[in-house]
Automatic annotation (TrEMBL):
Signal peptide: none annotated. This is Hypoxanthine-guanine phosphoribosyltransferase. One of its GO terms (molecular function) is glycosyltransferase activity. Its EC number is 2.4.2.8. It catalyses: GMP + diphosphate = guanine + 5-phospho-alpha-D-ribose 1-diphosphate; IMP + diphosphate = hypoxanthine + 5-phospho-alpha-D-ribose 1-diphosphate. PANTHER family: HYPOXANTHINE PHOSPHORIBOSYLTRANSFERASE, HYPOXANTHINE-GUANINE PHOSPHORIBOSYLTRANSFERASE. SUPFAM superfamilies: PRTase-like. It comes from Azotobacter bryophylli. NCBIfam families: PRK09162.1.
Amino acid sequence: MSVDLAHIRQVMAEADCLYTEAEVEAAIDRVAVAINADLAERNPIVFCVMNGGLIFAGKLVTKLGFPLELSYLHATRYRNETQGGDLFWKAKPEISLIDRDVLIIDDILDEGHTLSAIVDFCHQAGARAVLTAVLIDKDHQRKARPDLKADYVGLGCSDRYIFGYGMDYKGYWRNAAGIYAVKGL
Ligand SMILES: O=P(O)(O)OC[C@H]1O[C@H](OP(=O)(O)OP(=O)(O)O)[C@H](O)[C@@H]1O
Ligand code: HPA
């Protein structure tokens, strides 16, 4: 399917900036402080959830001052759309999780089906503890479970479709240096 780049550019031009780059960077710093305090002695395996987790994970891990192993997994349910569907695993962890502490890093906790499925997978694979860090938690009543929370949360946002800092609009603007909401969504 061909992409209408004029539309992609227009979405950026008309978007509302929810958080500037400086605000996002300050949030990443705060998350790093909390994780450094909790995980420094636990030799965790850290998983970046591709694709959206890429920017947050990359920035966050450079601020973690303790030994860790870094890998990735890829589970997707939006597939460049603005509405989620069934979860599809593109890449499962290959490293053994047995008796390991695991930290999952993703960009957004929206309805939470993605993070829930990843956490369940890690427990079933024998992880001792599974912790989660998200850059942003969207505020609405459609969570996969009512009590669903990440252990480490950078920022919150209202119930709009957002992009930037790893999050995409139709596959674009993951590179935006700020967090933006699409006009009208
Ligand atoms: O909380 P949820 O409603 O489950 O949505 C959150 C997930 O959706 C996005 O991934 P997406 O499926 O778009 O895959 P991608 O990162 O590869 O684009 C995002 O990166 C999270 O992983
Ligand atoms: O609001 C969003 N923006 C980008 N990706 C997403 N994945 C779930 N929700 C969102």
